[in-house]
Design a protein that fits this description.
Elements: H1 2-7, H2 11-24, E1 32-36, H3 40-58, E2 67-69, H4 77-86, E3 92-95, E4 108-113, H5 120-128, E5 143-145, H6 150-154, H7 171-179, H8 181-185, H9 195-217, H10 222-235, H11 242-260, H12 264-275, H13 303-317, H14 322-329, H15 336-348, H16 353-364, H17 371-381, H18 388-401, H19 407-420, H20 428-434, H21 440-447, H22 452-463
Parallel strand pairs: 1-3, 1-4, 2-3, 4-5
């Protein structure tokens, strides 16, 4: 170990590692990283090389204060530790012996091993720096970057094991295993457990990662927040708590739940689309070239085929679903309960709004946020697919014409337009929520001279004209 730690202080080796870390770690982000070096001299080298690598990636935007060497030889080490724990910078700490201080920084999400250790206890202390939960930043996992193979050397003697033994296994594969009666009969990894218990552990862990991350990001993504609210009503449990709910049900109960929620895996995929994926490079030494870029839509490979199938589905269901018929023929009369019913119907058959928007974008090369009502009416009536923001602008132009509004009233109308977002059902309940801090619908009606009902009727009719 000592001989290896002396050899690891090789500039070319460390330069390659630092260049890759600059692609993996975000010096501006909320997540913090800790890099373990072999010596103070090694830490100085890594600091210099990492600064160079980040500058090459981010240019002048990079601040060297984001990365700090924090060792026993650092000046004012207690102050550096305090800043690392409580402030934005530094968010990447390079250390040798910092773990011996018992530092507690819940935001640590990345560990980099650039040294070897003999002791299992010391190794688990190093890993323990990243095991604290941090709901504030939506932390669901931590990552280990291990170019020195420390994890491989000590994993057999370590008591810390990952819940998901095969990270490549998919949610669909886990759900299929859980539904397989053979899994419930085969022995598990723990006493008095079955293989189905192990599968449920892995499934719950993967769901937790996706849905906790989504819940954290939902405050800045209105469409994602609305989608999570719909899923909570559909599942009967908050998405961030779904993994706990499945564990409480047990393997058989969880399998029954997934069977009853037939579209759950597709719904999780839709959430991932709304969250957005992260760039995580894979290391490879061979030369690649782009062969093709394709996106599948369930059983359909082309967006045109998927949208054609959606059109057929809508037309077939018009005589079966009253709520769907209201969307097509009388959208101004649509209730929130009917809208929920329509969304669930489409979800169950693989036609969630996020997928429809993606299909239209890939078909036309134009990103049209037309709302679920717009997609349905286009499929059923051939109605032009118009961005919802444009519909709002046209509707507000009509509203401005129905009265001699005062400048103050026009400001309130403009506020109403900004609050619309992708609101489909325009009613007093919507106004009460949007203007809760300003007295709700009653006070807005006063400000508009008693014309709120006329405004809402005009707005609903202008947004979604009834079918001829």
């Amino acid at each position: 170990v000592d001989a290896f730690n002396r050899r690891v202080i090789n500039e070319d080796f460390n330069r390659v590692i630092c260049e890759q870390l600059a692609q993996e770690l975000d010096p501006f982000g909320e997540e913090k990283a800790m890099i373990f070096c072999a010596s103070d001299l090694h830490a100085d080298m890594v600091k210099r090389l990492l600064d160079d690598a980040f500058k090459a990636v981010h240019g002048e935007a990079y601040a060297e204060a984001a990365v700090r060497k924090i060792t026993g030889k650092s000046d004012r080490v207690a102050e550096l530790i305090k800043r690392y724990k409580n402030e934005r910078y530094p968010n990447i700490a390079i250390t040798v012996d910092l773990l011996t201080t018992g530092i507690d920084v819940p935001r640590i999400c990345h560990l980099v091993f650039l040294r070897k250790v003999r002791s299992r206890i010391l190794y688990e202390q190093m890993i323990g720096r990243a095991t604290r939960r941090c709901d504030e930043i939506g932390k669901t996992v931590f990552r280990i970057y291990d170019p020195v193979d420390l994890y491989r050397d000590l994993q057999d003697v370590s008591s810390m094991k990952p819940l998901v033994k095969d990270p490549a296994i998919t949610l669909a594969q886990l759900a299929a295993e859980l539904a397989d009666p053979a899994s419930h009969a085969a022995p598990g990894s723990r006493a008095d457990s079955t293989h189905a218990h192990d599968v449920l552990d892995a499934l719950a862990q993967k769901l937790m990662r996706v849905l906790r991350d989504a819940t954290h990001k939902a405050e800045k993504k209105p469409a994602l927040k609305a989608r999570l609210g719909e899923l909570e009503q559909h599942w009967g449990v908050a998405p961030a708590e779904l993994h706990k709910h499945l564990k409480q049900l047990g393997p058989q109960g969880a399998a029954d739940f997934l069977r009853a929620q037939a579209g759950l895996l597709e719904q999780i995929e839709d959430v991932q689309v709304l969250v957005g994926s992260r760039y995580r490079p894979l290391l490879s030494l061979h030369r690649d070239e782009l062969v093709a870029r394709e996106q599948s839509y369930g059983t359909y490979q082309k967006p045109e085929d998927y949208l054609d199938a959606f059109g057929r589905f809508v037309r077939e269901q018009l005589n079966e679903s009253v709520a769907l018929a209201v969307v097509v023929n009388r959208p101004r009369d649509l209730t929130r309960e009917q809208l929920k019913e329509v969304r669930l119907l489409l979800d169950r058959h693989g036609y969630a709004e996020a997928r429809l928007q993606t299909a239209w974008r890939n078909k036309t090369n134009v990103d049209l946020a037309a709302s679920i009502v717009g997609y349905i009416r286009q499929a059923a009536l051939g109605e032009a697919l118009i961005p919802f923001e444009q519909r709002v602008a046209l509707a507000m132009a009509r509203i401005h014409e129905i009265a001699q509004w005062t400048p103050m009233q026009r400001k309130w109308l403009d506020r109403l337009a900004r609050q619309l977002g992708h609101e489909v059902v325009i009613d007093a309940d919507f106004v009460n929520r949007a203007f809760a801090q300003d007295g709700g619908a009653r006070q807005l009606d006063v400000r508009l001279g008693g014309k709120l009902e006329t405004v809402l009727e005009t707005l609903a009719e202008a947004l979604w004209p009834s079918a001829a």
